[in-house]
Design goal:
The complex is a heterodimer. By secondary structure, chain A is of the alpha/beta class. Chain A has helices at 13-22, 37-48, 62-74, 85-100, 125-129, 143-158, 187-194, 221-250, 275-288, 306-313, 334-344, 366-382, and strands at 6-11, 27-30, 55-58, 79-83, 106-111, 136-139, 166-171, 179-184, 211-212, 257-260, 267-271, 293-298, 300-302, 318-323, 352-356, 389-391. Chain A has two domains: 6-250, Thiamin diphosphate (ThDP)-binding fold, Pyr/PP domains (Rossmann fold), CATH 3.40.50; 257-391, Rossmann fold. In chain B, helix 3 links the parallel strand 1 and strand 2 (67-69). Classes of the chains: A alpha/beta, B alpha/beta. Strand 9 (211-212) of chain A pairs parallel with strand 2 of chain B.
């Protein structure tokens, strides 16, 4: 039975803060950075009003934010933070350490470009910079998903078969600062869903003092890292378990991948984040023009669901993977490279190319997507992309 | 009441033997002395450095306390998270309320790369003790100059040469920087003066809020003296007033030790081969400069502590 859930209008940062309050972290570290700032302001207000009992540490940098939550998490309490862009970059060293120590920290990333030149608007260059650090990464298309991911992240991270940090990502401004209608749970529902986190092994166990962060030399290091990789590889089934339980509670089921009109599609688009909504509208329009196009939205970017991605795309005739970031000097953008690698190890690899869009907050419109789909439909006919990497929405002609 | 050596010997050994620090290391010795003076459960954390790499070689650990190392520049931030988590657990009765967090770092992790995190944690007022074991250079990476390296010392990145005297800048006054944060307790200590060190640790542990102890930790590999000489070297640093012992307790400056006779700094310098080059051609103006600086700092300290100025 599904209890009544409230419908509210909120910007994406507000449900981020609400989810943070509702999972009842023991310790949160906060530091301002656009466009995440509003999330931490809202959370600080919850604390100031006594609606949250969290110990809020207002640190002097994001490096210290991640360090403080590492200290708190290792001491055996639930610890979280949130950030954007350069803030995440400053945390980078500590992201590896949080994951390597198997600490169940969840963090909210409000995605923003990583200059220079400086730019405060959305792209995924911040998130892509951390993709190999050992965090599970969940992307949101909408404020609803940002909220749902924010709640599920705690359960996933703390699952005793997972014990990995989780980054939930929503698009800066596009999602974080626009008002959307979403369903929210009550504090009690969330509290019951996430439970209490009090691990047996921690720095607060004085009967069995433990050392975190020993120096591991070549005789053991590789084996330790292999174990960590195994934990990452094994995590999808537990992510799914949590998603099942969440669906039971809310009626909203979040899969690692979401397919939209993909079953009979000859042309496939692949995207992360908020652009999926615009893509779906464009797909509906192009379907009326008899172009068999569909979408694969990647919700769980780490671990990358390579088998499922290959399976979902192997029957198509052309694939355009859209990246909201650049991987300078690499063969393709990060998402495209992962999709390509998944197809190579799958049964069949249809022609694939990469379209870069939306850097530094540049809009991607339905008309832009129509152009992308038309070009991809041509590739489905010819079997040969015009280029490995295309740019969408540049000033003037690309050629 | 003065602390008795017998009492300290009866406290548990919280840094186990068998760690891989150099014979004669006064950094680990200082940490051991600190831990002998604690009278309650503690969670310890350390910055990257000699202490961490020599005490935690996997799958072994010398730490008999809960311990975490995470990175170089962040020990005070890590301690901030630990301290707040311990408060949560203490409030709910899961652990005793009196548990304290102790952060350890060398001078690199304190004076230089860790200064921002330390300043932030002091300003926020976390209830923790921060101990700097100051060996006056980056010893773990092989004796590179730091913000704590004394004027004229030869290090691997400030080597003495035909056109160089070694380090050409004065060390920053880290203890003063901490005092400027108006925290409850700040002190300087030295491993040769075990009773003073233990007394200061006990005072620091009883404070609510941040406490900072800067302990001189001579390193025979970096300072280049015979390894059994460390305690004498630290005693001479204090007697020459290169490293005065004092505390700032709730803002009140107290001198902990006043040498009866203040030997020339040159007597201390010439026992360490990092200063060898200063004595070529019979020393000279550089030695005078060093002596003058020490004398000025000492006079200023006496004034702050309300002590009469004349020494001899």
């Amino acid at each position: 039975m599904r209890p009544d859930t409230g419908r509210v209008a909120m910007t994406g940062n507000e449900p981020g803060a609400l989810a943070m309050k509702q999972v009842r972290p023991d310790v949160v570290a906060g530091y301002p950075i656009t466009p995440q700032t509003e999330l931490m302001q809202q959370f600080a207000q919850y604390v100031a009003d006594g609606e949250s009992e969290t110990e809020l540490i207002l640190v002097e940098s994001e490096h210290s934010a991640m360090s403080a939550v590492i200290g708190a998490s290792a001491t055996g309490v639930r610890a979280m933070t949130a950030t954007s862009a350069n803030g995440l970059a400053l945390m980078w060293e500590m992201l590896y350490i949080a994951a390597g120590y198997r600490l169940p920290i969840s963090t909210m990333l409000v995605s923003r470009s990583l200059g220079g030149p400086i730019n405060i608007h959305c792209d995924h260059s911040d998130a892509m910079g951390m993709r190999d650090t050992g965090w599970i990464m969940l992307f949101a298309e909408t404020a609803q998903e940002a909220y749902d991911n924010g709640i599920m992240a705690t359960r996933i991270a703390e699952h005793d078969q997972v014990r990995l940090p989780v980054m939930t990502v929503q698009d800066g401004f596009i999602t974080s600062h626009t008002t959307q209608v979403l369903s929210i749970l009550t504090d009690e529902q969330v509290s019951e869903f996430v439970g209490i986190y009090r691990p047996k092994k921690s720095l607060s166990n004085f009967d069995q003092p433990m050392t975190y962060g020993a120096i591991v030399l070549p005789d053991f290091y590789m084996d330790v890292k292999r174990q960590q990789a195994e934990a990452m590889d094994n995590s999808p089934r537990f992510v799914e378990q949590v998603a099942d339980e969440y669906a039971e509670l809310t009626g909203r089921r979040h899969e690692a991948l979401e397919s939209y009109r993909l079953d009979d599609a000859q042309v496939a688009l692949v995207v992360l984040g908020s652009a999926a909504g615009t893509a779906k509208d464009a797909i509906d329009i192009m379907r009326e023009r008899a172009i068999a196009v569909g979408l694969l939205k990647v919700r769980m970017f780490r671990p990358f669901p390579r088998v499922e991605v290959a399976e979902a795309l192997s029957r198509t005739r052309a694939i355009c993977v859209l990246d909201r970031s650049l991987a300078m000097g690499a063969p393709m953008g990060p998402l495209a490279a992962d999709v390509a690698a998944s197809l190579v190890t799958g049964r069949r690899a249809p022609p694939l190319y990469n379209a870069v869009y939306g850097l530094g907050g540049r809009d991607i419109t339905i008309a832009d997507f129509e152009g992308v789909i038309e070009e991809a439909a041509e590739v489905a006919q010819t079997g040969a992309p015009k280029a490995t990497v295309r740019y969408v929405g540049l000033r003037g002609n690309e050629e | 009441m003065a602390i008795k050596l017998r009492e300290l010997t009866q406290t548990p050994e919280l840094i186990a033997g068998g760690h891989r620090a150099c014979a004669g290391c006064l950094g680990v010795n200082a940490v051991r002395q600190v831990l002998h003076a604690v009278d309650r459960p503690v969670v310890t954390t350390s910055a990257t450095g000699c202490l961490e790499v020599t005490t935690t070689i996997y799958p072994y650990t010398a730490w008999q306390t809960p311990f975490i190392h995470s990175a170089f520049e962040n020990v005070a931030a890590t301690a901030s998270g630990i301290e707040r988590a311990l408060k949560v657990l203490g409030d709910e009765g899961a652990i005793p309320r009196k548990v304290k967090t102790i952060a350890f770092a060398g001078d690199g992790g304190t004076y230089d790369i860790g200064l921002q995190a330390l300043s932030g944690a002091l300003e926020r007022g976390h209830d923790f003790l921060y101990v700097c074991y100051n060996n006056e250079a980056y010893m773990n990476t092989g004796i590179q100059r730091s913000g704590a390296t004394p004027y004229g010392a030869s290090t691997t990145t400030s080597p003495a040469g035909r056109r160089s005297l070694g380090k050409t800048q004065r060390p920053k006054n880290m203890t003063d920087i901490v005092v400027a944060h108006s925290v409850p307790y700040v002190a300087q200590a030295s491993p040769h003066s075990w009773r003073d060190l233990a007394t200061k640790v006990k005072k620091a542990m009883d404070k609510e809020g941040p406490a900072f102890i800067n302990i001189l930790a001579p390193c025979h590999r970096g300072w280049r003296y015979p390894m059994e000489e460390g305690i004498n070297i630290s005693k001479m640093a204090v007697d020459t007033c290169v490293w005065p012992l004092f505390e700032v307790d709730e803002g009140e400056w107290n001198l902990s030790y006043r040498p009866r006779r203040k030997p020339d700094v040159a007597d201390w310098l010439k026992r360490q081969r990092r200063f060898d080059h200063l004595f070529k051609n019979g020393g000279g103006p550089v030695l005078d400069t060093i002596q003058d600086t020490v004398d000025e700092d000492w006079a200023k300290l006496l004034e702050r502590c309300g002590e009469p100025p004349k020494t001899d």
